[in-house]
Amino acid sequence: MTTEHRRERITDPERIRALAHPVRIALLDHLGDVGEATATECAEALGESPASCSFHLRMLEKYGYIERAERRGREKPWRVRVADFDMRPDPDVPGSLLAVQAVASMGLESEFLRAMDWFSKVDRESDEWVQATTFTRTSFWATAEELAQLSRDVQDITDRFAGRHADPSKRPDGARFSRFFAVVNPDPVDPASAAGTEPEAQR
Asked: Which residues form the HTH arsR-type domain (predicted)?
């Protein structure tokens, strides 16, 4: 079974809240990085106990995030079931907004720490890889429809690299496992923006 080229929409609050745990997010990230791993291998990578990893892996399986991979003799590795999630609230599903808020907060913290780790060690990298890195911030005016389209565009940016997780032969020489993290959101509503007036700081 391949995990590429599929994006699954998730709106069920219980299923979303199942990810609101740092160990589960770390396990899902690790399995996405390595392709497949046993509970013991996950424990070694995360610095957690095998028992803790086994429990959280079973919870991830229960809520449809991971599945059993092919056995390796007596070993029973896990793999992600779908690599790409579209996890956003549905106004018709009570509780989905609060569930997404909880998971988003944990995800933002995780990505912040990961980016900080990179920048704290960037002096050890060659100039080629330093120049290939970007930290981008920008602001602009957009309608809800335009922002929604931008969100879809951002989600699709890395599709050009599809298949390289599962098939190493698709990775060009010199390729390194890389990270992409982006947030597209409007500023919170305030009297100035509601009146269509540009905030003073952005003029």
From this structure: 14-102
- Residue 119 belongs to some domain of the structure: no
Count of domains for the chain = 2
Helices first, then strands: H and E counts in the chain: 8, 4
Domain range for 67 is 1-114
Which residues neighbour 88 within 8 Å (Cβ) at sequence distance 6 or greater? Answer: 9, 11, 100
DSSP result, 26-66: HHHHHHHHHS-B-HHHHHHHHT--HHHHHHHHHHHHHTTSE
Helices (H), 35-158: 39-46, 50-62, 96-120, 127-131, 144-156
Q: Among residues 15, 22, 81, 75, which one has the least CA distance to residue 53?
A: 22
Q: What is the pLDDT of residues 74-118, one digit of tens each?
A: 899 999 987 677 888 889 998 999 999 998 998 888 889 989 999
